[in-house]
Amino acid sequence: MPYLAHFGLEERPFTLTPNPDMYMHTPEHTAIAQAVVYALKQQAGVIKVVGDIGTGKTLLCRILLHALNDVQPLAYINAPERDEDRLVDTVCKEFGVYPGSRESAFEALRYFLLEKHAQGFTPILLVDEAQALGVEGLESLRLLSNLETEHAKLLQIVLFGQPELDLLLRRYELRQLNQRVVHGFYTSKLTMDEAEHYVRHRIACCKRKSNRRELFTKGALTLIAKSSRGIPRLLNVLSEKALLVAYTDTAPRVERSHVEDAVADSKDILFAPVAIMDKTTTRRVLWAALAAEAALAAVIAVLLLPVGDVGGSIFSRVVEQLAPSVTSVQTQTASLPGPETDQSRDR
Fold this sequence. Notes:
Elements: H1 2-7, H2 27-41, E1 46-51, H3 57-68, E2 74-77, H4 84-95, H5 105-118, E3 124-127, H6 134-145, E4 156-161, H7 163-169, H8 175-180, E5 181-187, H9 192-206, H10 218-228, H11 232-248, H12 256-264, H13 267-270, H14 279-291, H15 293-303, H16 312-334, H17 342-346
Helix pairs in contact: 4-5, 7-15, 9-10, 10-11, 10-12, 11-12, 11-16, 14-15
C-alpha cells in the first residue's frame, strides 16, 4: 500500500488477523499462558479461557498452539461443529486419524488416544470460539472428555470463548461438563499504558530498519488508548484509520487531530446505539434478561460486534488521494495491446 512507503513501513502493522509475529507479551497474557501450560502438565482435563470480543483470545490460543506443538500431539479447531458426528470427525482429522471402513470415528479416536497414552503422551484439543458449539456441541465434548484409563485422562481440552461460553456451561443440562472444568482464566482489556505500548510495539514490528522516527505523537496515542477502551481489535482499527488520515494529509506522523477523525469515522463501532423503550417494556426486558442469562449475552454480543476492515469516509479520502496516480497509470496502459496486465492492476 502507498502509505507504507510514506511512513517507512514494510507491512501493515494493524491488520485484524491474529499474527503471532506481532504478539505483545502482557503480564496478564503471560500469566494465563503459563497457568494453562502448568494445568496441562498436571493433566487437569478441561480448561477454559474466557474474554470479551477483541481481547486477544484467538492470538493467545495460537501462541499456545506454537508453544505446545513440540510437547504433545495437538488438534486445533477454530470453527467448531455442533453436530456430534461432524465434531468427532473434525477432531480425528486434526489429529491425523482416519477411521477404517468398519470402525466409527469415535472408536478410531479412542484407539489413537490409547496408543499415544502407551507412548507417554496426552494429546491436547484446543477449541477456539467454543461458545459456537452450543449445548449439543459442548455435550459432545463432554463425551470426548470421558475418554480415560483408570489412572489418567486420554485427552485434555482447552476451550477459548466469549462470555456466552460461561452462560452455556451454567445450564442445567451441561452441569456434568461444567464440573469437569478444573481451571478457568479470563482475558481483560489493556490498561492505558499497555494500549499505548501496544501501538508502539506493532509499529516497531513493521518498521524498516533504517526508520527511527516516532509515527504517533503522545497526544495521538493517549486518545487512541482512551477511545478504544483498551480493546486490541479497536486499537488496530483506530490506529490504521489514523495512519490513513495522516497519509492523506501528507503528514510525517499521526497527530491527535488525525485520531479525532478516525474516532469520528468509527462511531458505529465505538458507540453502539441504545434502543429507546418505555418503562413497561424496559422492566419486562430486564426481568427476561435476569431469568435467561442468554438474553443478556445477546445484548453484549450486539454491543461488541466484530469490526471489519478499514472503510467509511477515510477510505474515500485515500481513494481521492490516489486518483491522480491511477489516472496516470491508465493513460500509460491505454495504448498497450491486449488485456490489462497483472502488474498494472496491482499498481
